[in-house]
Amino acid sequence: MDPKLPTDEDTNRFFDQVVQHLEGTGQYSFKEATQLVQTYYKKFRDPDYCASAGIPVQDDDFFHHEGSPEIARRIHYCLTLKGNPKHVKYVAWRSSL
């Protein structure tokens, strides 16, 4: 990531893969995908934002557990489509694809 996320190298490499997945959809340029990743990481690591959305804070373990393709889909859903970030709402949307 450039600029790097405030996390370890492994997670920065992980989010480089997320950027590649977002770019691979053909909907986002490298710059747009990078900006979405930066925004998503900042929002979903922020305890105040997560509390206001009624969701737990997402940590590096969560990101790695979900995998880069899934996080790319979450980013698209939450930030581009402005979907409800609650897990059940996201799963319902994903299941409808």
Count of distinct strands: 0
> What is the count of DSSP helices, taking H or I runs of 4+ residues?
6
pLDDT < 50 stretches: none
Q: Strand count, sense and closure of the main sheet?
A: none
Category by helix and strand content: mainly alpha
Order of helices and strands: HHHHHH
Q: Mean pLDDT across all residues, rounded?
A: 96
What is the terminal-to-terminal distance?
29 Å
Helix content: 55-70%
The radius of gyration is: 13 Å
The gross shape turns out to be globular
Q: Classify the beta-strand content into a percent band.
A: under 5%
What does this 3D model show about the protein?
It contains six helices and no strands. The longest helix is centred in the first third of the chain and has 16 residues, at 9-24. The chain is mainly alpha-helical and 97 residues long. Helix 1 (9-24) packs across helix 2 and helix 1 (9-24) crosses helix 5 (68-80). It has helices at 9-24, 30-44, 47-53, 60-66, 68-80, 87-95.
Compile the SSE list and pairings.
Elements: H1 9-24, H2 30-44, H3 47-53, H4 60-66, H5 68-80, H6 87-95
Keywords:
97 residues; mainly alpha; 6 helices
Short description:
The chain has 97 residues and is mostly helical. The chain contains 6 helices and no strands.
